[in-house]
Amino acid sequence: MLLYLVFLCIIAALVQEYTLRHALDKVTYDTFPSKTSVDPDEVFEVVTRIGNPKRLPVSFLKFQESLPLELVPEGDVKLRRDNELNRLTTTTFLKPRQQLERRFPAHLTHRGRYFLRGATLMGGDFLGLRQSVEYFPVNKEIVVLPRALPEASFGDTLGDFLGNMSVNRFIMEDPVLTLGFREYTGREPQRAISWTQSARMGRTMVKNYDHTLDLSVTVILNVECPQDLPDRGGRIEDCFSATRTVCEKLEGKKIKYGILTNATSAGAIGLWSQIADGLGKNHLMTILEGLGRATHGSTASFESIVNRAVRRDEAGRYYILITPAMTPGMQAGLRRLQALKGGRVFTIDTGSLAALRDEDNGAKEA
């Protein structure tokens, strides 16, 4: 009987030692946000998946996840705040061939890029007295888009500017400027249909106007400004918000628009300094994601992007300039663009917007 007990103890010790040495073998870990881009304060889910494909269980598993410091959880989730990260510690066990998934809602308040960095996993015996430790790195990103500015800050003047565009568009689409005819696709307005040509060809034909008469807007986003500019960071953030507001306004009015900028866009795939004219949800989201990734650093001078606009200018193009400040040097470049385009340049100086907000806040407090 004693030998039997000794044998059982030896077997148990060997199994315990094997379990400790191989507790995390083949264990899988992943975490990711349920959305890749969100608006400020929009709720999304942080998803964590842990799997044990082995035939043996993991009797004790503790994992400590590294989350953005700015992450605000919803509900009863408790995070431990460190200097640079939020940490979430969870203790569980895994049955053989089991996969666990946990989700909790959260939100982020400020524009920018945020990362889920992975977790440290600790596996061991049931009591957790002895553990093996392994780090599972993850680099999953979520982009928070800029907030839109209230249209009241510049909506009336912008509306007048876009109203003049609509008038000019109607005037310029004159039949004498027709280059030819093409088959109707269903996307053209009915007033573009040539009934005479349609009867002659036996199918619906539309007038093909000169492409330069299809009015469009280039949004020039400038972030270059003096380093000692008061509230420099806030003004640049307002530039990103104003750009979103303008692009959404153009999208709503179905006016084609593109962007020309000297702002950097961290981690952006493809060309960000210039986005060609377009319309639609995907076009808008390309610009908004770039704004969410944008930093306060400038890749080129204000003068250089104005020169690029002048070189590539064409008939029927309007410009909306968004800048954190307007220094004397910048005013010279702006006058050059205004001389080229007449009244087709609309300027948003976010320094003026900040002053208006301060006045409004002061009036409310009074």
Structural write-up:
- The chain has helices at residues 2-21, 155-172, 195-201, 232-252, 281-293, 302-311, 328-341, 350-365; strands spanning 28-33, 37-38, 44-52, 58-68, 72-73, 80-81, 85-94, 98-107, 112-124, 131-144, 178-183, 205-209, 216-221, 256-261, 263-265, 274-278, 294-298, 317-323, 345-349.
- The chain is of the alpha+beta class.
- It has two domains: 25-144, Immunoglobulin-like (Sandwich); 151-177 and 212-365, Rossmann fold (3-Layer(aba) Sandwich), CATH 3.40.50.
- Helix 4 (232-252) links the parallel strand 13 (216-221) and strand 14.
- The longest helix is centred in the middle third of the chain and has 21 residues, at 232-252.
Structural class: alpha+beta
Number of helices: 8
Largest sheet: spatial strand order: 2-10-9-4-7-6
What percentage of residues falls in helices of 4 or more residues?
Answer: 25-40%
Shape: elongated
How would a textbook summarize the main sheet? 6 strands, mixed
Topology (SSEs and partners):
Blueprint: H1 2-21, E1 28-33, E2 37-38, E3 44-52, E4 58-68, E5 72-73, E6 80-81, E7 85-94, E8 98-107, E9 112-124, E10 131-144, H2 155-172, E11 178-183, H3 195-201, E12 205-209, E13 216-221, H4 232-252, E14 256-261, E15 263-265, E16 274-278, H5 281-293, E17 294-298, H6 302-311, E18 317-323, H7 328-341, E19 345-349, H8 350-365
Parallel strand pairs: 2-10, 13-14, 13-18, 18-19
Antiparallel strand pairs: 1-3, 3-8, 4-7, 4-9, 5-8, 6-7, 9-10, 11-12, 14-16, 15-17
Helix pairs in contact: 4-5, 4-8, 6-7
